[in-house]
Specification:
By secondary structure, the chain is of the alpha/beta class. The chain has two domains: 114 residues, Alpha-Beta Plaits (2-Layer Sandwich), CATH 3.30.70.120; 188 residues, Rossmann fold. It is built from nine helices and 14 strands. It has a seven-stranded mixed beta sheet with strand order 10-9-8-11-12-14-13, sandwiched between helices. The protein has a four-stranded antiparallel beta sheet with strand order 2-3-1-4. Strands 5-6-7 form a three-stranded mixed beta sheet. A hairpin with a 2-residue loop joins strand 13 and strand 14. The relative contact order is 0.11.
Length: 307
Amino acid sequence: MEYTEVTVSTTTQGSELVSDLLLRLGAAGTQILDRADLPDPSKPTANWELMDQSVIDAMPEDVQVKAWFDERSLQAILGPLREQLTLMQNPDMGTLKVTLQGVKEEDWSENWKQYYKPFRIGEHMVVKPTWEPWDTQPGDLIIEIDPGMAFGTGTHETTAMCVGLIEKYYQGGTLLDVGTGSGILAIAAARLGAKGIVAVDIDPDAVRVARENVSHNGLEEAIEVKKGDLLQGLSQQFDFSVANILAPVICMLAAPLKAHLTPGGRFVCSGIIAEAEKDVHDALLAAGYVIDEICHKGDWVAFACHT
C-alpha cells in the first residue's frame, strides 16, 4: 500500500502536542526526530557510545514530527490538520510547516529503527528494542520496548527523572501508575521487584501498547493494565504511586490520590514544565504531602513526596 509521510516542523516543547494531533487525525503511526533526545558520543560516561555519529549528523536541525496516512485518508485530514496547526501557532511551537512525501509501507514501518538504540535510564535500567543486542553488565535491569506508537519509550527527561526517583525511593509494596502510556514506569518498578502493580490509562491504544510491553517483558503476574480515567473505579490503597502526566492534572490528582496511598506512602510525579513547578509544589503541600525531593532536567521538573 502507498502511504504519504506528513512531516510537521516544530520544537521540543511542541512535539508531543503535534504527535497527539496527528494520531487523533488517524495517523498509522508517528515518529519524533529531535536532536535533544539523542546522545552525545563525546561523553563516554553517559553510556552513549552505542549511537553512531553519522546518525546524529543526519538528524534535522529543527524538531520534526512524522506521521503516515494512506492515500484514502490523506485528503480528508489535510484541511483539519492545517486548521488545528493554525490554532496552535505561537513562538514556542516553531514554524509548524507541513511537508508531504510519498513512501511505501515497508519503508515507513522500518526506517525509524535506525534512531532507536539501547540506552541507560536511572542507575540500573537499560531500555532496548528487541532487535538490538546488549552486553548485559552486573546490576543491569533490562526493559524491552519496541516503539511502534508515541506513548513514551524512556528518552524524555520526565521519564528519566521518574525512573531515577523510583529507584531511589521504592522500598517494596504495591504500586499505582497513573497515565501509564507505554507502561515503562510500571515495568521499571517490576524490575525492582514490585508486585501488585496497577497501571491505568484512559487511552485504549495506550492500554493495548502497555499490555503488549508488559507481556513481552514477562511481567503479567506483577502488572495489571487497566483502562480508566485517573483514579476512577479504584478502591484499594497503594504503597507507592507514580504519575508522569501534565501539571494541571497532577494538581487536580494530588488530593484524591492521597486517599489511595497507605500511611507514609510515596508519590513520584513529573510531566511538569518548569513554569508550572510552583503550582504543583503548592498543590502537593495543600494536599498534605511532605516533599522529599525536587528534580530538574532540561525544561522539566519532577517531585518525590510522601503522605
